[in-house]
Amino acid sequence: MSGKGGTGKTTVAAALALALAEEGKRTLLVEVEGRQGIAQLFETQALPYEERKIAVAPGGGEVFALAIDPELALLDYLQMFYKLGSAGRALRKLGAIDFATTIAPGVRDVLLTGKACEAVRRKDRGGRFVYDYVVMDAPPTGRITRFLNVNDEVAGLAKIGPIHNQAQAVMRVLKSPETAVHLVTLLEEMPVQETADGIAELRAARLPVGRVIVNMVRPQVLDAADLELVGSVSRPAVARSLSSAGLGGARRGGHAERLVEPLLAQAEEYAERYTLETEQRAVLAELDVPLHELPLLAEGMDLAGLYALARKLRGQGVS
Ligand SMILES: Nc1ncnc2c1ncn2[C@@H]1O[C@H](COP(=O)(O)OP(=O)(O)OP(=O)(O)O)[C@@H](O)[C@H]1O
Ligand SMILES: [Mg+2]
User: Fold this and answer.
1) Hey, which of 1, 9, 11, 185 would you mutate to test ligand 1's pocket, going by the most ligand atoms within 8 Å of its Cβ?
2) Are residues 230 and 193 in the same domain?
3) Tens of pLDDT, residues 159-172
4) CA distance linking residue 192 with residue 220, whole number of Å
5) 199, containing H or E segment
6) Dist. CA 188 → ligand 1 center (Å)
7) Which residues lie across from 87 on neighbouring strands?
8) Could you tell me the residue range of the domain that residue 83 belongs to?
9) Is the N end or the C end of the chain the one with fewer CB atoms within 10 Å?
10) 162 and 267 both lie in a single domain
11) How far is CA 201 from CA 34, 111, 144, in A?
């Protein structure tokens, strides 16, 4: 799950993980930016570098969560490939791990995508996949293609050996139809433009584009006929309607008049926004990607709201 900053990547990733976990499925929700956004959303304490059950979905499915820490992921790898054990800890003391995860470009991203792909491919003793789905709260649109593609660069740099094989295995998962990069947007010009650019970049890199989720959609309060009237409506008629509806006092020449201007100003504002949103919907329709919409939860986000968004995604067949 990617998208412009602040559009709801973390929220929608969590809602998707819940939606996919329904009916006994098991989902892993991973975050990679060290922000502890998932713990906050599920109202639990900070996640360790360890898969933890954080929610039960309707119908008995489970959502696990993991905050991937690049340093610990690197130690994992050294252990896996080179059986480094305590030598790995020594490297850490020397600051070599810091160097690799914060300074060497790309290494950090390789570790993050590598860990997520390991979870995708992991099987239990009976040979069944441990997780039915892995949902990643990924970096924003501006960085997503580079982030996912960095293994290609690494595979090219290390021509043979475990790192080369690892990088290639990760790319196989990421470029397969098993993976889908979903993008969250708002019905505003900037995030929609970023979505369009992001899709073009992903396609050019042959990464599988999934769906676009339009988040925080506000309800439509005026229909086409009402919108026509905005701007040309007769003020005395509005005042009369308000009075007869018992608003602003029933008395002729009462308070209803005072409500007219602010209400019409709101209507005009709404009409303007509606026009802009319609333009953005048209741009999104051109992208040739399945579109979904999630409502703006006016009361703000909480766990109940998150479950409500998950239901909406389910209802729109996102699974
Ligand atoms: N459908 C919604 N209705 C109401 N509030 C929402 C909705 N979706 C997200 N929010 C709120 O919007 C804010 C941004 O959401 P979120 O943190 O998921 O975005 P993000 O894209 O992950 O941000 P960042 O780029 O900072 O990681 C949060 O306060 C969240 O609770
Ligand atoms: Mg986030």
Assistant:
1) 11
2) no
3) 777 777 878 888 99
4) 19
5) helix 189-204
6) 15
7) none
8) 2-218+296-315
9) C
10) no
11) 25, 22, 9
Nearest to 151 by CA among 117, 181, 122: 117
Pocket test of ligand 1: the residue of 183, 187, 292, 301 to mutate, having most ligand atoms within 8 Å of its CB, is 301
| Report field, pTM of the whole predicted structure over 0.70 | yes
> 8: CA distance to ligand 2 center in Å?
7
126-134 contacts at long range (C-beta below 8 A, 24 or more positions apart): 130/26, 131/26, 131/27, 131/28, 131/64, 132/20, 132/21, 132/25, 132/26, 132/27, 133/17, 133/20, 133/21, 133/25, 133/26, 133/27, 133/28, 134/27, 134/28, 134/30
Name which of 181-190, 242-251, 285-294 the model is least confident about: 242-251
Cα distance between residue 114 and residue 169, in whole Å = 9
Co-location of 203 and 266 in the same domain: no
Instruction: Please state, in angstroms and rounded to a whole number, the distance separating the CA atoms of residues 139 and 144.
Output: 6
State whether the beta carbon of 294 lies less than 6 angstroms from ligand 1.
yes
Same domain membership, residue 88 and residue 232:
no
Q: Is the distance from the beta carbon of residue 5 to the nearest atom of ligand 1 less than 6 Å?
A: yes
Residues 165 and 191 in one domain: yes
Question: Same domain, yes or no, for 47 and 153?
Answer: yes
Distance (Å, whole) CA 223 – CA 225: 6
Q: Report the phi/psi class of residue 68: left, alpha or beta, with left for phi > 0 and alpha for psi in -120 to 50.
A: beta
Q: Domain count of the chain?
A: 2
Give the residue with greater pLDDT, 221 vs 214: 214
User: Is the distance from the beta carbon of residue 139 to the nearest atom of ligand 1 less than 6 Å?
Assistant: no
List of E strands, 155-290: 181-185, 209-217
Q: Do residues 259 and 148 share a domain?
A: no
